[in-house]
Amino acid sequence: MDRKKKAGPEQMPESQEGAQPAPANTSKPDQPQDMADSLQELEEARAMQEEYLALAQRVQADYDNFRKRNRQVAAESYEDGARAFIKTILPVVDNLERALQVEQDQEDPLYQGVTLVQKQLLDALKARGVTPIDRKGEPFDPKLEDAVAQGSPEEGTPGTVCEVVIKGYQMGENVLRHAMVRVVPDL
User: Fold this and answer.
1) What is the pLDDT of residues 122-181, one digit of tens each?
2) Domain range for residue 168?
3) Which residue from 117, 64, 73 is spatially nearest to 95, judged by alpha carbons?
4) Rounded distance, CA 118 to CA 132, Å?
5) Are β-strands 168-171 and 145-150 bridged in parallel, bridged antiparallel, or unpaired?
6) Which of 9, 43, 166, 172 is surrounded by the fewest CB atoms within 10 Å?
7) Does a structural domain hold residue 172?
8) To which H or E segment does residue 124 belong?
9) Is residue 164 part of a domain?
10) H helices then E strands: how many in the chain?
11) Residue 168 sits in a domain of what CATH number?
C-alpha cells in the first residue's frame, strides 16, 4: 500500500519543479461555438436515430406482412390440395351410390358393407365441408349446374331442374363439380 500513496510536491520529478502549470482553456469565445457544435452533433445523432428507428419499424412491418402472407399462402395451398384430392374421390362416391341403386337384398352382408363404406365416405366429406348440389325443382343456376338434357313441359315449371343426372359437389363457396341436370325448357 505504500506504493500507492499520492506523490506530493517533494516527490515531483526535477524537470517539472520550475515549470508553471498549464493555464486552463478559459477563453470565453470558444464555449458558444463548442456548444453550438455539440448541439448540432446531437441533432444529427437524433435524426439518425429516428431514421434508423423508422427503418427498423418498416423492416419489422415487412417481416410481419411476409409471415402473414406465407401463412395465407400455405392455408390456400392446403385447401387447393384438399379440393384436388376430393375431386378425385367424387367418382368413387358416384360408383358407391350406383352400386346401392341395384336391386339387392338389403340383408346381404355385401350390401350392408357397401352402405357403411358409402356412409363413412360421405361423413368424411361432410366433415371437410363438402356438400352435394342437388337442386331438383329449383330454378336452373349455371354457376352450380350443367344442363345436359331437356325435360318435358309436364315435368315442372319452365327453367327449373327436373332431374339430377349426376350430383354436383361444392366445398364452401367453391364448386368442385357442377351437377349434371335435365332442365324443363322455356316455352
Assistant:
1) 999 999 999 999 888 899 999 999 999 998 888 888 889 999 999 999 998 999 999 999
2) 131-187
3) 117
4) 14
5) unpaired
6) 9
7) yes
8) helix 109-127
9) yes
10) 2, 6
11) 2.30.22.10
